[in-house]
Design brief:
The protein has nine helices and no strands. By secondary structure, the protein is mainly alpha-helical.
């Protein structure tokens, strides 16, 4: 990674941690200088102001997940496997970027009005990735018809993304293990499965 890329990563990570701890409006450029060790000139080399930082924090994870989801959609995978792999990718993103996710949920309203539409467009594109994954499974008979549509997507989004409130990187379960529980819950429900006829 080149020096400019490293300083940008340091800046955005430091901003996310400060915004998560103190709030977007409670963080100033001077706080960013102290926390990151970057000069004011270096900060303004990468961004025009705090709004650029907030916009980047609230959109970069969406861009990464959209790209990852589209890569999975382009592969000839069974629908359930594709869903499980994407679930794991989403949980890894959340666990690896907890400060960013906290800012995304709590300070999204702070994004300037002129840019809010871009953020919402990315959210819609991200939801469409989930919708396509579910629809593929419905179309080939893997998923029940009730998995098709807006409600199923919202349910999966809530299941995954609100983990930012309680998940811990050093917790007893890995992101993949949590994702597998979520996927099993979505695919199989919580009722015990009947034993095959003649078993036992």
């Amino acid at each position: 990674m080149e020096r400019g890329d490293r300083s940008r990563e340091t800046l955005f990570r430091g901003a996310a941690e400060l915004f998560a701890a103190n709030g977007y409006h409670g963080t100033g450029i001077a706080d960013l200088e102290r926390a990151t060790g970057l000069s004011r000139g270096s900060i303004y080399h990468h961004v025009k102001g705090k709004d650029d930082l907030l916009f980047g924090i609230t959109t970069e994870y969406l861009r990464r997940l959209i790209e990852s989801g589209n890569e999975l959609l382009a592969q000839a995978l069974p629908a359930a496997e594709r869903l499980r792999l994407f679930s794991r990718r989403v949980l890894q993103e959340i666990v690896e970027h907890l400060p960013e996710m906290t800012v995304c949920f709590r300070d999204l309203h702070g994004v300037s009005e002129g840019r809010r539409g871009q953020v919402l467009d990315l959210h819609r594109e991200y939801e469409q990735v989930w919708a396509q994954m579910l629809q593929r499974g419905v179309d080939d008979g893997t998923f029940a018809p009730s998995f098709s549509g807006h409600l199923a997507v919202k349910a999966l989004l809530g299941l995954h993304h609100y983990t930012y409130i309680w998940v811990r990187p050093d917790g007893p379960m890995s992101p993949d293990e949590i994702a597998d529980v979520f996927t099993d819950l979505a695919l199989n429900g919580i009722l015990p499965r009947a034993a095959p006829e003649g078993a036992g």
